[in-house]
From TrEMBL:
Lineage summary: Bacteria, Pseudomonadati, Pseudomonadota, Betaproteobacteria, Burkholderiales
Coiled coil: none
Keyword field: Flavoprotein, Oxidoreductase
The UniProt record lists the keyword Oxidoreductase: yes
UniProt superkingdom: Bacteria
Protein name (Swiss-Prot/TrEMBL): 4Fe-4S dicluster domain-containing protein
GO MF term set: oxidoreductase activity
InterPro entries on file: 4Fe4S_Fe-S-bd, FAD/NAD-bd_sf, Ferredoxin-NADP_redctase_2
Occurrences of domain 4Fe-4S ferredoxin-type (ranges): 47-76, 77-106
Amino acid sequence: MDYSYLYIAAIGLAVALYWRRHRRAHEQHAQELKQTLEAGLGEPPSLHPVIDPSRCIGSGSCVRACPEEALGIVGGKAVLKNGSACIGHGACLSACPVEGITLVFGTEKRGIDIPHVSPEFETNVPGIFIAGELGGMGLIRKAAEQGRQAMDAVRRRADGSHDLDVLIVGCGPAGLSAGLAAIQHQLRYRVIEQEESLGGAVYHYPRNKIAMTAPVQLALVGKVRFGEISKEQLLEFWQDVVRRTGLKVSFRERLTGIERRGEGFVVQTSAGTFSARSVLLAMGRRGTPRKLDVPGEESSKVVYRLVDAEQYRGRHVLVVGGGDSALEAAIALAEQPGTTVTLSYRSEAFSRVKAKNRERLGVLADAGRLKVLLRSTVQSIEQRAVNLEHEGRKLSLPNEAVIVCAGGELPTPLLRQVGIRFETKFGTR
């Protein structure tokens, strides 16, 4: 009996199901792109891919490689369907089989300031180096390489004439790698980090987010090969490296000023003043968290990002802000059993936020899982309460934690004051 027609029918059915599934996915991508543009979220914050439509074959390799789901296929071509979600890790670039992707900074509408640096990552101000995200490099592997390579140039400048051979600002991938290289080169160093933990931007990734896939070369450690690794696993690895190598990091210490003094610098931090022959700026582009400037904000219960919603289970929490980070924090908290959540925002409506966040927030508010106070501002923070002004009236709420999601202040003015030159990129490398 001839079964060939059955095989042909089975293959035809498989092909039909394949194209049906892909058509639905492409329609969904087109709808997401439309919603992103309508919400004003099409502008990527930093390094991002630009797809050459003449080269793109619509394979979807870049889409599958992007853990942020920022890319999609529309009209048979890859597109950046959610620019605000792109964090510039560049996995799409290496995944493209036809080399149809270029990573660029800024867009035609919104420029991004990128500092001028030499091949050794030294700025136009001799002795000040920039590596990692501040210099436009969000890739973990590349940032770590830059930090290590910058220390090679710092070593040649070290002459013992200052308290420190190098002050390293930031403890993300670039700062950690630079600190290890400083130990290897027997430099007198100091690493400062304004947060309470190492990791830089990685520390603030969502739980279980895939953080790194490429091998990286670290001083004192050698080549470290990773497959896919979660944020938690990567942070645990770095913490183990710090323990094993004896790398010293001063947490909760913030850079406040740099002044040229002879062949080096006098650097002011929140912990004191230091003289340094060289300075490596390895902080992220998130900048210093924007403060509320209200009485009680210095309390330990006030933080500026939500890392783990579960730790606030059963507590009274106030979230301040009106962007996606604030909405996502309030939503995650409201989904914890027994947590009382209030979201305070000074404007009369949320703008430039993802539609799914707005919808989910509305559902939770209607269900009584959280309370939204528009046109409200925080007046003061007390040990067990927080005081607000809401539509002209005073309001006091029970409170055990405050999470401020009001964005950050980039250190660009401070760096320009030192003399560091920046170039504004409008969709260019």
